[in-house]
Amino acid sequence: MLSLYNSLNRKKEAFKPIGSARVGIYSCGPTVYGRVHIGNLRAFLLPDLLQRVLRYIEHVDVDWVMNITDIDDKMIAKSQLEYDKLNPVEALERLADKYEELFLQDLEKIGIKRDDISHLPRATDFVVEMQSIIKGLLSSNIAYVQNGSIFFSIERYQKSGKKYGKLIDLNFSSKSRVTHDQDQKDGVADFALWKAKKPNEPYWDFKLDDTNYPGRPGWHIECSAMSTKFLGDTFDIHTGGVDLKFPHHENEIAQCGGSQANYYLHNEHLTVESEKMAKSTGNVMSIEDVKDPMAFRYLVMSAHYRSQMDFGSKDLAGAHERLRRLRTYTDQLMLARPGQLPEKDETKAVEQFNVEFKHALEDDMNTPKALAALSIIESKVYSLDAREAMRLVDSVFGLNMVNDTPLHDDILEAIDSYTQARTDKDFKKSDELRKNILEKYGLVAADTAIGTLVSRH
Ligand SMILES: [Zn+2]
User: Fold this and answer.
1) How far apart are the CA of 335 and the centre of ligand 1, in A?
2) Is the pTM of this model over 0.85?
3) Which residues contact 302 (CB under 8 A, 6 or more apart)?
């Protein structure tokens, strides 16, 4: 049974899906005003891993929704800089098109395909849904209008008997100001649901009774509107980076009158020399700067999602080498000729591996432990059940290692000649044939207990 660390209750809990058919996951997506950095990418590898683990352990299908934030201050500023000839709404759309495409390309490089995500809604397509939630909050008197903007009142929310501060402990009695949404508002922590139109900014009409409040939505409201639209009033799991706990997720929970999701999962930061990777610190790196993006994926998976991960080029080189060895072993199993691999491994190492691998993932997706279990079989056990085990590893970790296209007859013949030369102890000839197999077919021949096995170079 899968257990997950639920930020709502701050403990590991057995995962119980709402329904039996599909598990709903909502992930806060990128703001598409620039290229995401690899620290951001860690936050998208979490739900990708999660959906794979859910399929493996819980045998369920998954609906994974990730929003695209295409409206906020940074989007507006950048769109007007890059597309100054277009009207504000068109400029915004053009900017979102450009960086959403780049984002999807970056995801693909780290093994997340467009089709792996069930829905990728854009915020500005759901303004009506956002307005409908805001109307509800106004009529229940939790929200208030001020200078054309609409704010959520934390005080009124708390007075209605609800708790604000489900994910982290909050204390607003101090003088500390919340840095987001600095527009005029009553309470320090109140946040904007709707921001009054400013000159030359994109805006939408918002008619309340007889008054129009032209403006644009705040950030938090968009996620609640889109998660409700695609996953319903309640759904299974909400994911995001740990920095989204407050104010973003806390505000999402408040404006929905309680948590929509039964489980909140947060991944820790990726740091560079112990500093958070952020545009403001100037230490950002995009996946384009990474030579082997799948090694980056491996590297992220080799740390537990709830532990901080310090990133360095040495680590990436280490992950590249580790992945190369794992690919070699996987190839050797997949490319073995029919009948070459015994059905079962006699030493029961595969059985032991399967148990440890599953236990590790069931325990709040302990990926480092699951990967460590590979040492039980890797490069020493060659059998059909080991081949199935590696197929499973690949499907859970999404490393795209499996290639089981059968080898062509002339390759098989070349391997046979090589094996024969080895048996005859004609090492000069076998060395030549090995070289030939590498140069002609790009395959590395290795001598194992069950004969010659090959892997892609
Ligand atoms: Zn969100």
Assistant:
1) 44
2) yes
3) 319, 322, 367, 368, 371
